[in-house]
Amino acid sequence: MSVPITETLARPATTARGWAAASPTVPLAPYSFERRPLGPFDVRIEILHCGVCHSDLHTVRNEWSQTFGQTLYPCVPGHEIVGRVAEIGSAVEDFAVGDRAGVGCLVDSCRECDACAEELEQYCEGEAGPIGTYSSVEPQTGRPTAGGYSSQIVVDEHFALRISERVDLAATAPLLCAGITVFSPLRHHGVGPGSRVGVVGLGGLGHMAVKLASAMGAEVTLFTTSPGKTADASALGADSVVVVSREAPAAGGDLDLVIDTVSASHDLDPYLGALKRDGALVLVGIPAVPHPSPGVAPLLGRRSLTGSSIGGLAETQEMLDFCAEHGVVAEIEPIAIDQINEAYERMLAGDVRFRFVIDMSTLRTP
């Protein structure tokens, strides 16, 4: 439920430390800012780790302005947030101080539209749409939302997620975006034992798609332009690897589903052709430059081209619980916060295996 702004003023605001971009053309740097006062339904989470998503880089550099609007600066990125609850509001029911908790790509929505009623908050149809963890406008204060490259976050408990004590916390952080982004279409399309799933790309999203599809019992084929990723793909659970630079995906193929995780513009026709009749190609990577339009011929086999956007809160919790049960976490490289600008350049060069995660204990007062 929505909380009137006046009700959130019972406790004082707190000062958070973080790193932010002041414009699209300058490196991220230390930044202090206020988190909103704790409202009755809010939890304050001490952030222990935050994944570094390619979306962070796109947003910081304002590369998605035509798709999602202008970035709001200063921009504190980060939407793969894990930590422990440090404080709770008077009406909070699902969390206690000391609990492990996470925050993903959303921190609010209208909670009244049809999409929200169906627990699909990522497709919120309210006037403001879904409220992103950063570079959106916080309804409670009217200020830009600020993400997880910071010491703490305040969020309504509805948008906080429970994290098992059994899992590695740092390696769980990327599940809050990379994991749910591929889990949602796998679940929506009914992937399970006997399914044949293709994954395009073996980056942050792609390696999670391989792991999750394999854990669901599917036969997994990885499509990659990098011959050197064959061994990694097999170790992650892929049953076969197609090196696209050497051989094209088969036309009139036998795959039920292909999840395309690549965030660079490329030809979609070969992957549509790899599907069997009634198969679906799902786009989850978002290129700065649009893909070329697919041809009609591959679609005539009653194949479909569709997309998917993260997941709602209930589905994200389901994903976290599934991963805890099956021992699925991300492959990560921990970094200190002052390595973030270098990490962005390494991401652009493809020099990461497979997700950077910031150890927030390295955050120091500017």
Blueprint of the fold:
Elements: E1 14-20, E2 29-35, E3 42-52, H1 54-60, H2 65-68, E4 81-88, E5 100-103, E6 106-108, H3 114-117, E7 131-132, E8 152-156, E9 161-162, H4 169-172, H5 178-188, E10 196-200, H6 204-215, E11 219-224, H7 230-236, E12 240-243, E13 255-260, H8 269-273, E14 275-283, E15 304-307, H9 313-326, E16 332-336, H10 340-348, E17 355-359
Explained architecture:
The protein has 366 residues and is α/β, with parallel strands linked by helices. It has two domains: 5-176 and 311-362, Alpha-Beta Complex (Quinone Oxidoreductase, Chain A, domain 1); 178-307, NAD(P)-binding Rossmann-like Domain (Rossmann fold). Helix content is 21%, strand content 25%. The protein is built from ten helices and 17 strands. The chain has helices at residues 54-60, 65-68, 114-117, 169-172, 178-188, 204-215, 230-236, 269-273, 313-326, 340-348, and strands spanning 14-20, 29-35, 42-52, 81-88, 100-103, 106-108, 131-132, 152-156, 161-162, 196-200, 219-224, 240-243, 255-260, 275-283, 304-307, 332-336, 355-359. The strands form four sheets. Strands 3, 4, 5, 8, 9, 16 and 17 form a seven-stranded mixed beta sheet that branches. It has a six-stranded parallel beta sheet with strand order 12-11-10-13-14-15. Strands 1-2 form a two-stranded antiparallel ribbon. Strand 11, helix 7 and strand 12 form a beta-alpha-beta unit. Helix 5 packs across helix 6 and helix 5 (178-188) packs across helix 9 (313-326). The longest helix has 14 residues, at 313-326. It is globular, with a radius of gyration of 20 Å. The chain starts with 13 loop residues before the first strand and ends in a 7-residue tail after the last strand. Mean pLDDT is 94; it is low at 1-9.
